[in-house]
Amino acid sequence: MEPVSLNNLKVIKPIRISDLPTKLDIKNKEAKRHLKETRKALAQIQEKIYAFGKYSVLICIQGMDTAGKDSLIREVFKRFNASGIKVHSFKVPSEEERDHDYLWRHYLVLPRVGMFSVFNRTHYENVLVARVHPDIVLQENLPNIDNVEDITPDFWESRFEQIRNFEKHITENGTIVFKFFLHVSKKEQKNRILRRLEKKKHNWKFSSNDVEERQFWDEYQQHYEEAINKTSTEYAPWYVIPSDSKHTARALVASILLKRLKLFSDIRKPELDKEEKQELKEYRQELKNE
For residue 85, which of 32, 59, 77, 152 sits 20 to 30 Å off, Cα-Cα? Predict the structure, then answer.
């Protein structure tokens, strides 16, 4: 598998999702081998970031139902020290969460310095699912929003600005942000849903919501396109990942993480000064003499 250029998948100018590929000509065996090599290097960088103690890393993963978010997280971060990474899946907001602004629950679980956090579904649900089902916004009890007709285009523009500001704020305070859209075709999603229905061992994965939300496929694609175009910034870029092959998607995400984190040349393990090195020698000798 050839090394992936960051700019191949990074959104640096307006995109049309329908023009972007959902699969690449990469064999599964090749992608698996590349992932195995890359995640070992990622684990080493994780240790460096923890020891350096000035950065944290936030990885945001979005995609349609069956896009492979869960398995990607499991496979890409398999070699990580489990104590240094946390995965957060954002479901329907609780009563307490609804009593705060929509970004509040995301602020609460941002990664600490030296740590990694993965958002499996993210704050972008508030400009994706909420646009397809605007009654969700009504549940936020916002001033001057009493019915769906009150949710104007300006409302969504304001949300995009709030999200950009949120991401700018955390990056300026040391959080490195990655945003991945797992781009699957409608045909591949159909095949994956059918597999859940036809194979007994996968039945537990099926949710009627998968089929119900599929009816809004075109609407979701439109809103994903707009959200990505309006919030892909240099400090918090989006990457559109061809995901009809789960193996390829995992290898691409791992490769992007590794290549971009390597750009932070200041990240290194702390070096001991002469006095500290001398103390280590003395402690070592003391233990040997016991």
Answer: 32
Radius of gyration of the chain (CA): 22
CATH fourth-level superfamily of 6-288: P-loop containing nucleotide triphosphate hydrolases (3.40.50.300)
Provide the greatest CA pair distance for the chain. Answer: 80
pLDDT of residue 5: 58
How much is the pLDDT for 1?
Answer: 57
Residues contacting residue 281 through CB under 8 Å, at least 6 positions apart: none
Tokens of 282: 């003395």
DSSP labels for the chain? -PPPPHHHHB--S---GGGS-S--S--HHHHHHHHHHHHHHHHHHHHHHHHH-S-EEEEEEEESTTS-HHHHHHHHTTTS-GGGEEEEE--S--HHHHTS-TTHHHHHTPPPTT-EEEEES-GGGGGTHHHHSTHHHHTT--TT--SGGG--HHHHHHHHHHHHHHHHHHHHTTEEEEEEEEE--HHHHHHHHHHHHHSGGGGGG--HHHHHHHTTHHHHHHHHHHHHHHH--SSS-EEEEE-SSHHHHHHHHHHHHHHHHHT-TT--PPPP-HHHHHHHHHHHHHHHT-
Q: What are phi and psi of 170, to 5 degrees?
A: -75, -30
Mean pLDDT by 10 residues, the chain (290 residues): 66 96 94 96 96 97 96 97 96 93 97 98 96 95 95 97 98 98 97 88 77 93 98 98 97 96 90 71 79
Residue type, 245: S
